[in-house]
């Protein structure tokens, strides 16, 4: 459903030559599949995600193609892209607080998109918001729907972020470091929810992390990136068991011990 072809992104800078941060990246993602994108901080993962949802900063120039069911998103107008965002592609960010309005009850924030963009009445939007909070496993959703973001834990706020991303029923989710700001114990719950969504709703997922342990839990295929370029891209299992590159091996060595133990038990 998604094919990125030879994507190059360059940033213009003041009093300095332009800097190329994506140097010809290609990938494909099938419907219902999960692609992991892994690489150290600064390797271009977020710039890749922002290119796909059309949210690159103004000083960026993108070349190549980003095909969503055959339509090149790089050629769409801002108005055309607004239709794609939310409806076709849902985005989950690293820091859920940045996606949420601290001054609004979470239920109202989820309902807002439903009213404005799906045309639901206030009552129907609230019912749907409640269903979404259940879907992301917020306990006692009927009570928590009227909470403010600061009354929730980091993990709950990220669940709300996922509910907002799901509200317009997209068929592709992009989760950029969705668990990086969270405690290890909370991370697993968020990853389980993402895995359930892919399995139950048939969504496609791009899961971005600097941590190969996170990627290994969910991704069918993995793209390893370094300095804006692909290092390798293959079935996750193959990448983990027979890394084709020293750089991938350093990422495997950096995996949390628990994830590595699981991997090694599988290999034995
Ligand atoms: N708005 C920007 N202007 C200039 N350079 C940027 C901008 N955003 C990101 N970059 C640069 O692009 C590179 C890739 O960044 P990013 O995609 O955020 O990395 P990652 O998400 O893998 O940590 C980095 O070198 C970063 O400094
Ligand atoms: Mg990033």
UniProtKB/TrEMBL annotation:
Pfam families linked: ABC_tran
Keyword Cytoplasm: no
Superkingdom, taxonomy of origin: Bacteria
Membrane topology type: Peripheral membrane protein
Location(s), subcellular: Cell inner membrane
SUPFAM superfamilies linked to this entry: P-loop containing nucleoside triphosphate hydrolases
InterPro entries to which the protein is assigned, alphabetical: AAA+_ATPase (IPR003593), ABC_Ni/Peptide_Import (IPR050388), ABC_transporter-like_ATP-bd (IPR003439), ABC_transporter-like_CS (IPR017871), P-loop_NTPase (IPR027417)
Annotated GO biological process: transmembrane transport
PROSITE patterns: ABC_TRANSPORTER_1, ABC_TRANSPORTER_2
Protein name according to UniProt: Oligopeptide/dipeptide ABC transporter ATP-binding protein
Lineage of producing organism: Bacteria, Pseudomonadati, Pseudomonadota, Alphaproteobacteria, Rhodobacterales
């Amino acid at each position: 459903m998604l094919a990125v072809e030879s994507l190059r992104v360059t940033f213009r800078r003041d009093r300095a030559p332009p800097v190329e941060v994506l140097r010809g990246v290609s990938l494909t993602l099938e419907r219902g599949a999960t692609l992991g994108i892994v690489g150290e901080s600064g390797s271009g993962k977020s710039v890749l995600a922002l290119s796909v949802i059309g949210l690159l900063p103004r000083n960026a120039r993108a070349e190549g193609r980003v095909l969503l069911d055959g339509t090149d998103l790089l050629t769409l107008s801002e108005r055309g892209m607004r239709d794609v965002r939310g409806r076709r592609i849902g985005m989950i960010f690293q820091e859920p607080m940045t996606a949420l309005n601290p001054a609004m009850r979470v239920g109202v924030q989820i309902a807002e998109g439903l009213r404005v963009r799906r045309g639901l009445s206030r009552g129907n939007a609230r019912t749907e918001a409640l269903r979404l909070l259940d879907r992301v496993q917020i306990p006692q959703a009927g009570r928590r729907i009227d909470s403010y973001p600061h009354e929730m834990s980091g993990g709950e706020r990220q669940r709300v972020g996922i509910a907002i991303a799901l509200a317009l029923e997209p068929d592709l989710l992009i989760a950029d470091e969705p668990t990086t700001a969270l405690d290890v114990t909370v991370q697993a719950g968020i990853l389980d929810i993402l895995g359930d969504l892919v399995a139950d709703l048939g969504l496609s997922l791009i899961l971005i992390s600097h941590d190969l342990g996170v990627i290994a839990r969910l991704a069918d295929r993995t793209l390893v990136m370094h300095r804006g370029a692909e290092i390798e891209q293959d079935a996750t299992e193959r990448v983990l068991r027979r890394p084709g590159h020293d750089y991938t091996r350093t990422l495997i060595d950096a995996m949390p011990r628990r994830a590595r133990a699981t991997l090694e038990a599988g290999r034995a």
